[in-house]
Ribonuclease PH (Candidatus Macondimonas diazotrophica), 1440 residues
Amino acid sequence: MRPSGRTPDQLRPILLQRQFTRHAEGSVLVGFGDTRVICTASVQESVPGFLRGKGRGWVTAEYGMLPRATNSRSDREAARGKQTGRTQEIQRLIGRALRAVVNTEALGERTVILDCDVIQADGGTRTAAITGAYVALHDAMRHLERRRMLTRFPLHGQVAAVSVGIYRGEPVLDLDYAEDAEAETDMNVVMNEAGGYIELQGTAEGHAFRPDELSAMLELARGGIMQLLEAQRETLASSP
Amino acid sequence: MRPSGRTPDQLRPILLQRQFTRHAEGSVLVGFGDTRVICTASVQESVPGFLRGKGRGWVTAEYGMLPRATNSRSDREAARGKQTGRTQEIQRLIGRALRAVVNTEALGERTVILDCDVIQADGGTRTAAITGAYVALHDAMRHLERRRMLTRFPLHGQVAAVSVGIYRGEPVLDLDYAEDAEAETDMNVVMNEAGGYIELQGTAEGHAFRPDELSAMLELARGGIMQLLEAQRETLASSP
Amino acid sequence: MRPSGRTPDQLRPILLQRQFTRHAEGSVLVGFGDTRVICTASVQESVPGFLRGKGRGWVTAEYGMLPRATNSRSDREAARGKQTGRTQEIQRLIGRALRAVVNTEALGERTVILDCDVIQADGGTRTAAITGAYVALHDAMRHLERRRMLTRFPLHGQVAAVSVGIYRGEPVLDLDYAEDAEAETDMNVVMNEAGGYIELQGTAEGHAFRPDELSAMLELARGGIMQLLEAQRETLASSP
Amino acid sequence: MRPSGRTPDQLRPILLQRQFTRHAEGSVLVGFGDTRVICTASVQESVPGFLRGKGRGWVTAEYGMLPRATNSRSDREAARGKQTGRTQEIQRLIGRALRAVVNTEALGERTVILDCDVIQADGGTRTAAITGAYVALHDAMRHLERRRMLTRFPLHGQVAAVSVGIYRGEPVLDLDYAEDAEAETDMNVVMNEAGGYIELQGTAEGHAFRPDELSAMLELARGGIMQLLEAQRETLASSP
Amino acid sequence: MRPSGRTPDQLRPILLQRQFTRHAEGSVLVGFGDTRVICTASVQESVPGFLRGKGRGWVTAEYGMLPRATNSRSDREAARGKQTGRTQEIQRLIGRALRAVVNTEALGERTVILDCDVIQADGGTRTAAITGAYVALHDAMRHLERRRMLTRFPLHGQVAAVSVGIYRGEPVLDLDYAEDAEAETDMNVVMNEAGGYIELQGTAEGHAFRPDELSAMLELARGGIMQLLEAQRETLASSP
Amino acid sequence: MRPSGRTPDQLRPILLQRQFTRHAEGSVLVGFGDTRVICTASVQESVPGFLRGKGRGWVTAEYGMLPRATNSRSDREAARGKQTGRTQEIQRLIGRALRAVVNTEALGERTVILDCDVIQADGGTRTAAITGAYVALHDAMRHLERRRMLTRFPLHGQVAAVSVGIYRGEPVLDLDYAEDAEAETDMNVVMNEAGGYIELQGTAEGHAFRPDELSAMLELARGGIMQLLEAQRETLASSP
């Protein structure tokens, strides 16, 4: 029995609220249950040094968490003067995940920065961030398209992410904090709309996981991601 | 004529949404028009070194802005590795303003940290932060009181803040970004419920301001702050 | 009765020693009683990035304190690896105060950096720094003028600063450390030669200050600043 | 055809040289082909704050690369003043991998720090580091055992790691730099002696990888890791 | 012929002004010609961790230079966020030089920090700093003695320093900036009152220096240091 | 009697292994007894800003020590976020020593960076680093010569370094850690093939050293360096 009463293959309620803030080219509040992340997409008419003059764009991500997004307050990274290893790991993951569906030549010499800021955390902040950032990135691309700044639409695929794990011996989908804190294995899966893996990150917390457990988790992840991709499409089909 | 169509002595719509996030002892979303700041109050059962063993508590504040809270994206302070002078100045101001209404002996050897994070900026972020942080601080104090952790209520006064300025030659209340960017003088006023000044910070941007201009701005500030204090009382009187 | 025996409206002895060190275009040792600050003005033939190519110059300030300028030694900021919030706040104030009297177009694409380093502290270091930096800045401008590097003189006004406060219930001018440590209110006033306010920063340390107390403090500040402006003029009228 | 002429399931020559340097409790030079990493295990009689007084030990890792370990020199992290996100990600991975086989209660209140420093890089530095660090950790545990500082041997399993990927459409084992730079997918697999997964990190570089590709890669990894585990056992069985 | 007209073995005018600032236990303005350094000695009733509980004290030094002490302004180290290698090298040298004449057991569990801040630089700042810091240290020790906080006087020797070099082929004493910038060899010599070497640091800038040149430089240094030691004694013999 | 049984004028066994790693233009493992340092020379086709466009090259050095190169583990500088003063002092010394034998015009607008990383420390790491870095630098120059990128060979001399000291009252050559920790005086001597001094750094640890002790140490150093220079020549004469 899961603490939330969910079935093993049940996602938490999904929230994808577009135009959450005013200034960004894309701005989405994403919720996976009580986890809430603001994802903004900012377009800049320049690229990092290593891409200058190559006719290609770049997509990158930054991740942060408000100090009291969690149950006990954590230090503000800006005050400590550096980002933790965890933060860097997550923002690198988000960036890679989104770049996997971007045609950087179609984007042109521009950078899109995805800022994912957790305002409330209850497990799964990185998978929520990827799922929400995709919608924000899509809105930013439409923004460029409406202004006739593109010759082709730069997204060639769709991407979403979810966590899976082994909780009290059973594979479960989309772990909340209560489950995550106790899980024996925790895996984040990033997948595109064709069911291809973009990123797989699994960690044994308690015992090493067996190949059959891996298969069960991957199956759960596939089911969850298909629902998340559908939720993204629905949101994007509506007027924001 | 103000860009927003407001009269010189008119505040923007005020939003004070309590229990905005789940984890903090106090959590308020404050809005001054389009400016939106999340203010959380976190209670910690310890005090900074210089107060240890003295039977007194501490109240402090930290301030941040999401990178795309503004019209053009600013660098993430955590990534740059340090807080700007502006950030430090603002968080020191918020801390002083709130400490002015706290009886630190009644609080006991605890620290309350007020995190003020701007998610959307349109001028007046520091005055909105002070006004919202007061409500979050009050909720945190009630939280301690309900748990019978206090012998006396530690707040001995109420505090709110507003900006005033000279815009196109005329004193105006509660400047939005369009006004602020062009104002000749910008002043932040922090006041308690008895009309006493807690903090006054005025800066001539264009020409030096005259004593009569100062008087007119202080009069506007007083009127605005009385409305903000009333809004705080109304919010706190309702169940959250 | 003030610890120093001064009357409430009495400044400490003022020292403005020009050409205190050899290398800078302007170099002034300023003293407000026992407070001693070395203010140098350094001219650089370049401007910060945001001003490049705009035909305008820039004036900025940096502030520091020798570790043993104070009664108990404070850590060296260079060794700690960052400037405190207080330092940043003060250097931003000094920069704004001086820019208020500079015609940046007349200055041309140059930067003047005002370094204000406290070698002995006894209260009022920021107001002494502003008052001394004006003289150093003036000397640097004369230096450029003598070299025929200017078409117009870039200073269109004069600026000085003083602190006022409420000490043991009475408004007093130019607080020394003994008064400052105990004052209920502390206010720094920056004014130009026409009596216009350039900056006002008042903080209630004990109780909130009333409008009549504010008026009394502003009156004292005005009187003190007029004497400081006169002292600056005298110094500048003599050969250094 | 692989650039090195290896078959798809062929590891590079493995080197595990114990007692490579004199001072550390465990010191191993590990080679996967031309990749060379010095892994030292240092025992400290203390634990991090969060474990103090709990009767348990800790194992952690740090990773570095000499500036000219690579084909073009990279900046020295100590000179830049911070570790890159990549470095932090790798050292967190190494630490988690090794902790998975440690009984921290049997270790007692001690910390073992595994320093993995790459002196020559040719792909697979993190998997070589994990594989070598296990041997260094084992030597450090034997060192403690010989000094009768343990009541039980703290390692309850064995761990090794290898990379797999899709190179020119074909799954291959243990990628060298020439392959890695061009691979469409790159996956690091950490496994114990029972064939359980300790960590799985797969990233699509070019196209998303399909479930059948995942299976093929996992199969290759299993075969490679079994050989690495055997090599570790052989080394440890000999006198160093 | 030296730019200053001095003979090869002639020191610049020496200034040793005690009680230069008010707060420090020892405070000396030292001048070697136009080089001016404020040296303060601060006593703290604690020692660094590695000495705690050992009944011995510590003497250490920090060095800084005001940004415009030099002909062209250098960046403020506190603003850059770190001390240069040059600064660290110099402050380590000053600390070693002074510790060489201190009986740390007689000092007791206290630290004396020597802050050497250059307000005007014209070559030889480190040797001036050592020479002046000795006087400040002596005053601080007398301060402790007057308060009956010592059982024995902790200085068992006297120390001073001077630079020597090869300028246009000729060995010269106490190089000023004009000479230093052009010198083929630059050597700093720290010596005690018995003519023993405490520190020797010689660097060939142009050609390597021969043994006979070394001898000539050491002879000049000895003569100069004897005069400096005499100047210290005279200063300390007078009432400050 | 020396702990190692050596005579006072006896060097430890010298190791100079060229082509120790693959990527660098020069790569040498240098050993002075148990001290082991990897010295690589990396050629970059650019120069620091202050040399740009002047037709001259630059040679610089960086120094590091693996955390467990020493008997007790020291913190990783990259993790601490800054290099110690000791590290900076040593790398500045190595850079100066090597530049003394380089004709920077013959080098052309290139930089050679010498990375000296200690993998095992037993005293004398800086002198071993200089001695090994010379060989690495020479190999890098030959590398450029073979590619016909030079018109003249840029090395006009040869350089090596050794430590000398007073151990238990007697001058000794090439101190190992056991001697160094106890030595009364420690001196590092850098010399060229003509017997000219390039750098001399002597520090009295216990008592100040007398002129006759200085002479004896310099004599020992000369003898040792002549052997080191010979060892360099032999190594360079053989095919690597």
Notes: Helices of chain F lie at 77-80, 85-99, 104-107, 125-146, 177-180, 211-237. Residues 211-237 of chain F form the longest helix (27 residues).
